[in-house]
C-alpha cells in the first residue's frame, strides 16, 4: 500500500491529539503556583509580560541546585501550562486559595 499524504497527516495527528489530552488532564490535577512571597514576582511578570517571560523567572529559583524539581517531575518546559496560579481568575491573591 502506498502512503498517501492524508495517511501521513493522520499519523502525525494522533500524537498531537494524545499530547493535547495529556496536557489538558495534567492541568487539572497539577499543584498550583502558591500565592506566597516567593511567587509574587513571577505572578506579576505573568500578568504584565506573559507566560514565557514568567517561566524565565521560575527558572531563576526552580531547577537550580538550591531548589531542584523532583526526579519524577514531567518534562518541564512551559511551567504554566501545567502549574496555574492559585486562584482561578485572579493572580494577585485577593481571593481565597482554593
Ligand atoms: C507537563 C506538566 C508540567 C510542566 C510543564 C511542569 N510541571 Fe511541575 N509538576 C507537574 C506535576 C504533575 C507535578 C507533581 C505534583 C503534582 O502536581 O501532583 C509537578 C510538581 C512540581 C513541583 C513540586 C515539587 C516537585 O518537584 O515535585 C514544583 C516546584 C514544580 N512542579 C515546578 C515546576 C516548574 C518551575 C516548571 C517549569 C520549569 C514546571 N514545574 C513544569 C507537572 C508539570
Ligand atoms: C523567588 C524564587 C521562586 C520563584 C521565582 C518561583 N518559585 Fe516556585 N517555589 C519557590 C519555593 C521556595 C518553593 C517551596 C516553598 C513553597 O511552597 O512556597 C516553591 C514551590 C513551588 C511549587 C510547589 C507548591 C506546592 O504546593 O508544593 C510550585 C508548583 C511552584 N513553586 C511553581 C513555580 C512556578 C510555575 C514559577 C514561575 C511562574 C515559580 N514557582 C517561581 C520559589 C520560587
What this model shows, in words?
The protein is an all-alpha fold and 98 residues long. The protein has a domain at 30-82. Helices cover 54% and strands 0% of the residues. It has four helices and no strands. Helix 2 (37-49) packs antiparallel against helix 3. The longest helix has 25 residues, at 5-29. Mean pLDDT is 81; it is low at 93-98. One heme C binds next to helix 3 and helix 4.
Q: What's the helix-strand series?
A: HHHH
DSSP helix fraction: 40-55%
Any idea what the shape is?
A: elongated
Pick out the low-confidence regions.
93-98
Alpha carbon gap, first and last residue: 55 Å
Number of strands: 0
Averaged pLDDT: 81
List the helices and strands and how they pair.
Layout: H1 5-29, H2 37-49, H3 51-61, H4 79-82
Helix pairs in contact: 2-3
This protein binds heme C (2 copies).
Name its key features.
single chain, mainly alpha, disordered C terminus, binds heme C, 98 residues
Summarize the entry for a quick read.
This protein has 4 helices and no strands.
Amino acid at each position: 500500500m502506498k502512503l498517501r499524504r492524508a495517511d501521513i497527516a493522520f499519523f502525525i495527528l494522533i500524537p498531537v491529539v494524545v499530547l493535547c489530552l495529556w496536557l489538558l488532564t495534567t492541568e487539572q490535577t497539577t499543584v498550583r503556583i502558591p500565592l506566597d512571597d516567593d511567587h509574587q514576582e513571577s505572578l506579576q511578570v505573568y500578568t504584565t509580560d506573559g507566560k514565557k517571560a514568567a517561566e524565565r523567572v521560575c527558572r531563576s529559583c526552580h531547577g537550580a541546585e538550591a531548589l531542584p524539581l523532583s526526579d519524577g517531575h514531567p518534562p518541564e518546559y512551559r511551567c504554566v501550562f501545567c502549574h496555574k496560579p492559585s486562584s482561578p481568575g485572579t493572580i494577585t491573591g485577593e481571593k481565597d486559595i482554593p
